[in-house]
Amino acid sequence: MDNSNQLLEESAQANSNKASWPLIAFIIVVVIAIGIAWQFTGSKPEPEPVAVKKPIPAPVVEPEPIAEVVIPEPVVEEAVIEEVIEVEENPLPSLNESDDWLKLKLPEITWRKELLKLIVDEDMIRRFVVFTDNFAQGIVAYEHSPFVLPTIKFAPENDSVNFQSIPQSTNQDSSQASLQAKQNVWQWNEASSKRFELYIDLLRSMDSESLVLWYVEVKPLIDEAYQELGYEDDFTNTLQDAITRVLDMELPKSSKALIQPSVMYKFANPKLEALPDADKLLLRLGKDNLLVMKSVLLELHEKLAQQENGVR
Fold this sequence. Notes:
This protein is mainly alpha-helical. The protein has a domain at 95-165 and 189-256 and 273-308. It has helices spanning 2-41, 98-105, 124-136, 174-179, 197-204, 208-228, 235-248, 270-273, 277-285, 287-308; strands at 162-165, 182-186, 258-259, 266-267. Helix 3 packs across helix 7 and helix 6 packs across helix 10 (287-308). Mean pLDDT is 77; it is low at 40-45, 159-170 and 172-181.
């Protein structure tokens, strides 16, 4: 009995061993395969992971706020009537206050400004009008002269005494003629005319066209001063008469010998001494100065005539 059981257990164990052997063999094969795979692959470094760059998003630009356009409400303007007042650009001063204004204007018409000291700077317009009016009539109004008087006094050529026969006027009586039959006579000294050269230089330094334009500008004040003398006509006519007197003056061909019956010298020739004072003043200017003065005044005379006739 015991032997039969033992046989049965041994038989069962043998069958169990036969059944588990294939399983054991499979496990051994798997283990060996894993070991071989590790040998070939275990020493190689694992590939590093590739970093994928993420795209950088573009900055978002926020739109600027649009300024609100405010449309103004229409304004209804009231009609305003303005009074238009005509204002002159350079109004003339009054006649009594014109000296300061003229002192500023005179340097504009001459390039010899240092010679303006020859002009009397007091009541200048009235002086010019009165002197011109008198000169046109042959009178020299020294007290109203627009120029200062020369500081150099006239002197004849020499002080030696010459006794000469002097032509007598037919209207002199015999006693006076006998007294003047022989007189102390001095020769005219042309060098004495140089004392007028600065006055002629001042006149020559003035541009005639600018001078006429300046005259037209000041004309209202000149007319006012002329009317104060009692005249009603145009002063320009009187000015032209004065200029014509200078242009018509002829230089004498005879000698300009002098006599001195008193303090003042006189022309020895009665015809020269009988000339108007204005003409005798022109003779005292001397030949050269008078010719220059004629040339300047001739141009001035023509431009004044053109201005009066509306010719430019």
